[in-house]
Design brief:
0% strand; 2 domains; mainly alpha; Chlorophyll a-b binding protein; extended
Length: 163
């Protein structure tokens, strides 16, 4: 949902004239002004995420093997509640996993529901851009200015990539 909030806030900023790019142009803008090349960023991301996921996979295959909670032996603040997942004050700063087991289970279910809702919102943003070529705030403003003329039924027939 932070991605959805980021799209909405930057779209509001773009509509207000603050110079923010629309979400569908942000990658192009970032690549043009980046301090590192795309291949370097990709390799660094794969190495760091591969290391983290490798540690998680090793802990799933051999429970407790990676779960001492240390980061290269420096600090002991990463101990998680479950095998394969980090915890501690850096990954759980508000201590939400330290409550009752029922509440912890409820938080995990809420996180899954939140993720599914975010995926539906992103699908809506993709469909909206595909149909109109505009961002969500632009489409909302256009719809509010003339609700009967600007709906999904009136704008959904044009697909920019097919023209």
């Amino acid at each position: 949902m932070l991605g959805v909030a980021g799209i909405l806030f930057t779209s509001i900023g773009a509509a207000a004239g603050l110079g923010f790019p629309q979400w569908y142009e942000a990658g192009k803008v970032a690549a043009a002004s980046s301090y590192a090349s795309f291949p370097n960023l990709l390799i660094t991301t794969f190495l760091l995420m591969g290391w983290a996921e490798g540690k998680r996979w090793a802990d799933i295959k051999n429970p407790g093997s990676q779960g001492d909670g240390s980061f290269f032996g420096i600090t002991d603040d990463f101990k998680g509640k479950e095998n394969g997942y980090p915890g501690g004050r850096f990954f759980d700063p508000m201590g939400l996993s330290r409550g009752s087991e029922a509440q912890y289970k409820k938080y995990k279910e809420n996180e899954i529901k939140n993720g599914r809702l975010a995926m539906v919102a992103m699908l809506g943003f993709f469909a909206q851009y595909s149909a109109t070529g505009k961002g969500p705030i632009e489409n909302l403003a256009q719809h509010l200015s003339a609700p009967a003329q600007n709906t999904f039924a009136t704008n959904g027939v044009s697909l920019p990539w097919l023209q």
